[in-house]
């Protein structure tokens, strides 16, 4: 046992992005309309991706820039967002009043629960 040595722990040299780098990433051209509000909402609200992807259109309060989400463990909480997301969400929703906020590009191929499919387009909830 005396010959056993601890492995050296490497120092963590990662760093967070500054505001300018984040703004450049979120403002890039050529990013699909579905991804832009998703990324902004995740960044601005600091919510988990499962919470944001589980949002339905009728749970959004666009006027007050907030939504009720189901947190890990089933607790209900409110997430809020800023101007960047507020400008993109109405374009993404395009008049939809029900169904999932973030949809796949294609119609659902398999039978899904009705809450996970947009009735108008037949597209499924993004996961």
Q: Structural class of the helices, strands and pairings?
A: alpha+beta
H/E topology pattern = HHHEEEHEE
Q: Helix tally?
A: 4
Q: Major sheet, described briefly?
A: 3 strands, antiparallel
Shape: extended
Strand order of the largest sheet: 1-2-3
Radius of gyration, taken over Cα atoms and rounded to an integer in Å = 19 Å
Binned, the helix content reads 25-40%
Point out poorly predicted stretches: none
Average pLDDT rating: 89
Distance linking N and C termini: 49 Å
How many E strands?
A: 5
Summarize the model shown:
The chain has 4 helices and 5 strands, in the order αααβββαββ. The model has no long low-confidence stretch (mean pLDDT 89).
Provide tags for this entry.
alpha+beta, extended, three-stranded antiparallel β-sheet
Structural commentary:
The protein has 127 residues and is an alpha+beta fold. It is 28% helix and 16% strand. The protein is built from four helices and five strands, in the order αααβββαββ. The chain has helices at residues 19-26, 35-45, 49-53, 83-93, and strands at residues 60-61, 66-70, 76-80, 103-107, 123-125. The strands form two sheets. It has a three-stranded antiparallel β-sheet with strand order 1-2-3, with no helix packed on it. A two-stranded antiparallel ribbon has the order 4-5. A hairpin with a 4-residue loop joins β1 and β2 (66-70). It is extended and about 70 Å long.
């Amino acid at each position: 046992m005396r010959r056993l040595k601890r492995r050296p722990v490497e120092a963590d040299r990662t760093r967070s992005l500054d505001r300018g780098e984040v703004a450049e990433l979120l403002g890039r051209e050529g990013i699909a309309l579905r991804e832009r509000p998703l990324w902004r909402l995740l960044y601005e609200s600091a919510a988990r991706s499962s919470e944001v992807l589980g949002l339905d259109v009728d749970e959004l309060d666009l006027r007050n820039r907030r939504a009720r989400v189901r947190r890990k463990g089933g607790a209900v909480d409110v997430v809020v967002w800023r101007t960047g997301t507020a400008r993109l969400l109405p374009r993404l929703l395009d008049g939809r009043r029900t169904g999932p906020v973030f949809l796949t590009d294609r119609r659902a191929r398999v039978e899904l629960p009705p809450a996970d499919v947009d009735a108008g387009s037949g597209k499924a909830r993004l996961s």
